[in-house]
């Protein structure tokens, strides 16, 4: 997105929600940086300054969703912080937090409705 959005002047994005995105691939390290992360980081200045980003991590055991390590999702902060208008990281735990379950997880569906679709949810 950060490399190609400027080539599409008719496209405007103001909100982005990523779910279990492996910004640092399968690395569990808090210090090692993969080539994919380095590229995302290199081009981060191409992100729209008006963008609001929600990065959702699911965890079965506070380290992984069974596929993507939590630390890899957490690396999103290095890409988005101080580059976009707002960056929020949300961690979802409990039932149905395995990687393949996340798109159907009730909490994540509620987050999509609330933050992307701007629906007011009953409390």
TrEMBL record:
This is Uncharacterized protein. Gene3D superfamilies: alpha/beta hydrolase. It comes from the Bacteria. InterPro entries: AB_hydrolase_fold, DUF915_hydro-like. Pfam families: DUF915 (PF06028). It comes from Lactiplantibacillus plantarum subsp. plantarum.
